[in-house]
Design a protein that fits this description.
This protein is an alpha+beta fold. The chain contains 11 helices and 23 strands. Strand 10, helix 4 and strand 11 form a beta-alpha-beta unit. The N terminus and C terminus are likely disordered. The chain binds guanosine-5'-triphosphate (GTP).
């Protein structure tokens, strides 16, 4: 479930509440030059806007803050710093009356990298955030954008050395595969060379990302090729969020245990609403499988909306974040549609239509849509309930297995079809995993503040 509150702020608050805020909500600063695609990315991921509709978006004139919650335990805040607010070294910053101002920070004695823009103190923004997502329009001349990125990094290095930079080389949908790689290499080199000049060497920096070792003082920077017209933007944003979730390592370990104990190939934990994968096992992500998992979520949501029933009168007991009491009842004598709806299959009501041979267009590999028959006890709008699960068999002998973790999270596993013959083991292991995940999120809030802040 996404809660979005969009706030326009004209100045940055004092740092008084910084510690509390960073504990409560990891802070992502989303920035990049004008028209690079910042608003589009947020709209497509968090409000389900169709990518084609983003061309009608107006330019964002102010700093905006959007707060998101996936359930009650994964909260984060995205601050969008608009592109028309240019980033200046402090001595060049023009006031509204056209004069120049170079003195408003602790760091004014260094006149090279104190950044102030449009009335916003860039250093304060950088100090307060946990990650910078910087968008570069790959279809444009990006040299100015890279210079601006370098200035931001330069500033961030001083005020918040542990800050993570995630560079989205965006709008790559129009580029050939070779052009994508070449663009990424070029941008990477430009950043690397800039900081080689500053730091006097590049030897410790690998090609695709550098500073991945958190114990070194090197830059924590990653590059992602993204587009709102495919799943790449979801995957890249998932990586950003994963690094901000303090429980991520535990989740990864749990998923590793699951796949080894259940003879699976890969496991993803998805936020249902956004299709952000908040955790995966430690094997490299298979992009094609990731896309199929996203399609599986879409399929179930769509089918539930079509075949689900009105749940206004469902009595639902939840503990904190949607831990659902299995004894909820669907029986509603007043519901006129009851007789037509039949029993409930796969998190959706089975109607008179059979979809045992259902196939859907976005995933040509799908040959059948099998399911375990289970009772739904959750409002359709919430899509999944504590018993929901689904299996999609793919061509080539693989299958996808989906299981609800809570109202907001779904586990999707990739496995060989043969592994499904031991379904009882899978279900037992998945239930253990589910319990562990819920415990993890219940136990950690009191103890995780330091890891969130870092
Ligand atoms: N081809 C392509 N176009 C995109 C993509 N993402 C965004 N766009 C387009 O880029 C244009 C600018 O997008 P915005 O989201 O308004 O950019 P912005 O960075 O928020 O712009 P400002 O608010 O002015 O800073 C729109 O026409 C979008 O449709 C993408 O992945 N591919």
């Amino acid at each position: 479930m996404i809660e979005e509150t969009s706030t326009v702020v004209n100045d940055i608050d004092s740092d008084k509440n910084d510690n509390k805020t960073s504990y409560m909500r990891p802070n992502i600063l989303l920035t990049g030059l004008r028209r690079s695609g910042k608003t589009s990315i947020q709209r497509v991921i968090f409000t389900k806007m169709q990518p084609s509709q983003t061309q009608f978006l107006k330019s964002t004139p102010h700093l905006t803050i959007n707060q998101f919650s996936c359930g009650s335990f994964i909260n984060f805040q995205v601050q969008e710093l608009p592109g028309q607010l240019h980033v200046f070294p402090s001595l060049q910053f023009p006031n509204s009356d056209g004069t120049h101002n170079g003195s408003s920070s602790l760091y004014d004695d260094d006149n090279t990298t104190h950044l102030v823009s449009g009335g916003y103190d860039m250093e304060r923004l950088l100090k307060r955030c946990n990650a910078v997502v910087y968008i570069i329009d790959a279809q444009d001349d990006y040299s100015q954008s890279v210079s601006s990125l370098n200035m931001i990094i330069q500033s961030g290095k001083r005020v918040n050395p542990r800050l993570r930079y995630e560079v989205f080389i965006h709008k790559v949908d129009q580029l050939s595969e070779e052009a994508k790689i070449e663009t990424q290499r070029d941008i990477h080199n430009q950043v690397r060379e800039h900081f080689a000049d500053v730091n006097g060497g590049t030897d410790s920096w690998p090609l695709t990302s550098f500073g991945s070792n958190p114990n070194t003082q090197s830059l924590l920077i990653n590059f992602h090729l993204t587009s709102i017209f495919d799943h790449s933007i979801f995957e890249a944003f998932s990586k950003v969020i994963q690094k901000l979730i303090p429980q991520f390592n535990h989740l990864e370990d749990l998923l590793n245990y699951l796949i080894s104990a259940s003879n699976m190939e890969q496991a993803f934990l998805f936020d249902i609403q956004t299709k952000i994968s908040i955790a995966t096992d430690s094997s490299p992500t298979d992009m094609q499988m990731y896309e199929l998992c996203c399609d599986m979520i879409d399929l179930l949501i769509n089918m539930s909306e079509i075949y689900g029933r009105s749940n206004d009168n469902v009595v639902q007991t939840t503990e904190d974040d949607g831990i659902i009491n299995d004894e909820q009842s669907y029986d509603n004598p007043d519901d006129e549609d009851d007789e037509n709806e039949g029993h409930i299959v796969n998190g959706i009501h089975e109607s008179t239509n059979s979809y045992s041979n259902y196939s859907f267009s976005t995933t040509p590999m799908v040959t059948s849509f099998a399911s375990m028959t289970e009772t739904i006890t959750e409002p359709t709008s919430n899509v999944f309930d504590s018993m929901s699960s689904s299996v999609i068999k793919l061509t080539g002998g693989r299958a996808l297995y989906l299981k609800e973790i809570n109202r907001h999270l779904a586990l999707i596993c990739v496995l060989r079809e043969e592994a499904l013959t031991k379904q009882a083991i899978i279900e037992y292991n998945v239930n253990q995993l589910k319990k562990s995940i819920l415990e993890l999120f219940h136990l950690t809030p009191q103890t995780s503040s330091s890891s969130v802040a870092s």
